[in-house]
Amino acid sequence: RQLWWGHRIPVWYCPDGHMTPARADPSACGTCGASDLTQDPDVLDTWFSSGLWPFSTLGWPEATADLKYFYPTSVMETGYDILFFWVARMIMMGLEFTGQAPFHTVYLHGLIRDDGGHKMSKTSGNVIDPLHVMDELGTDALRFTLLVGSAPGNDTNLSVKKVEANRNFANKIWNAGRFVISAVQRLPEGTRADPAYTLADSWIWARLQQLVRDVERLFQTHQYGEAGRQIYDFFWSDFADWYVEVAKQQMQNEGLRGQTVANLARVLDLALRMLHPFTPFVTEEIWGHLRRALLDSPIAQLADDWPEALIIARWPEVRPAQDWEQAKIADFELLQGIVRSIRNLRAEKNIPPRRRLQARIGAGARAEMLKEQAGILAVLAGLEASSLTIETSIERASDEEAVLVIGPVEIHLPLAGMVDGTAERQRISQELADSEAQIRRLEQLLASEFSTKAPESVVARERARLEALRETAGKLGAQIKS
Questions:
Q1: Fewer beta carbons within 10 Å, N or C terminal of the chain?
Q2: What is the dihedral angle through the alpha carbons of 266, 270, 275, 280, rounded to the nearest 10 degrees?
Q3: CA–CA separation, 286 vs 235, rounded Å?
Q4: pLDDT, tens digit, for every residue of 162-195?
């Protein structure tokens, strides 16, 4: 590479070995006057040539249109190991030959090491060939692994297992996209997307807007890995694992079908736009299919202003937080907590997934909200819908009844023959101890500089978590005393 692309050393030799440096071919030796001259076959250090790159590639020393338009640029991204060799030389040469530094910000990423943390080298035989990895697991999977696998400036230990995990994420994107596209294509003619938002619709939209704000903040501070991780968590957990499952139930209701499918398409669209810098190939493909499906559907107005390709689509607009968002998020997170706790108990007691459990729920002030969500709650938690009781307060019927506490909510599950009274009290005591430990940790966190330095939305979430944990601890303590 150096011999092909480097600047040849501007020194000529005569037969007597005298050196003549010159900018152009000299006609005679500067020492003895000999005309038979040979230029040095070697080239200058590769970093010399590289240092000229920001402006020499744009037509310098001529005052070209490209040089005027593209120089200087804004951000330089490179590995920390060549900060002096390359970055410093580009800055010094830019100042010397153009009077301007070539960029105002340098973003340093870490080095890619093997899974044991050793630097890759042919001698050690530990080089991971990216071409082979891309052929086997996909370019998106490798790209996402490298982008999200480390914090700024930290080295990345690359293993094929990590790439395999992100190949699974690419498959998740594809499968979720196929589900939404299929739902759009199956909409009957005349379907309308009336704005009748359910709790799940409002929750996923609020979470998406929260994500857009967080990702924009992280991008502005060059925390690209954390931004990718948050998009990953939203898509995999919030969208694919939760909202899609709720949407399947909502679409069985003719009155909710149009709005649910429209909301699925809107959320998928914005999620793909945010994922595109991380996984450009699968997102471009899915987005193209989604656009065509929408334009041929009764809700074609959703894609009226979409461009022909995702790569030129507008980035999601950051909207100010609205008062209703936190309330809807809190309500749905309570629903999630109830479902998770019941699922965990089922797994602990080895209760078959198809067996529907009876349940009585005491929900205090959240009773009305949970009554409205009873159908979704029954499906997601595997409860018998016809016998599901949700009241303001519930008394424990017997020691053979399992009691789960989530914030202000008590869940009573009659599990005759499956619950040992003593073991159940021990479980509740352990949950109380865990809750109290989390309370102490959050109290210390909120009493520290975190409460003044962290973003207001993050601090608010932690305060809400603390209040929920205090409610949970109070309910668990009451159960132990009863």
A1: N
A2: 80
A3: 14
A4: 999 999 999 999 999 999 999 999 999 888 877 7
Tell me the per-residue pLDDT of 248-257, one tens digit each, with 9 for 90 and over. 999 999 889 9
What are 258's two structure tokens? 């149009």
- Strand order of the β-sheet with 360-362 is 389-391, 360-362, 409-414, 401-406
Q: Residues 102, 73: contact at Cβ < 8 Å? A: yes
CA distance 460 to 451: 9
Alpha carbon distance 105, 221 (integer Å):
11
**Maximum Cα interatomic distance, the chain, rounded to a whole number of Å:** 112
The token pair at 346 is 């089922």
Q: Compute the half-sphere exposure of residue 395: CA atoms within 13 Å on the CB side of its CA.
A: 2
Distances (CA, A) of 21 to 27, 33, 39, 48: 12, 14, 9, 17
* Helix ranges (DSSP H) in 153-223: 160-185, 199-220
In DSSP terms, 113 is beta-bridged to 119, 157
Neighbours of 237 (CB within 10 A): 13
Q: What is the DSSP string of 102-144?
A: S-SEEEEE--EE-TTSPBP-TTTT----HHHHHHHH-HHHHHH
Predicted confidence (pLDDT) per residue in 321-354, tens digit: 898 999 999 999 999 999 999 999 888 887 888 8
Residue burial 127-165, b: 16+ Cβ < 10 Å; e: rest: ebeeeebeeebbbbbbbbbbbbbbeeeebbbbebebbee
Instruction: Determine which helix (DSSP H) or strand (DSSP E) holds 442, and give its type and residue range.
Output: helix 421-446
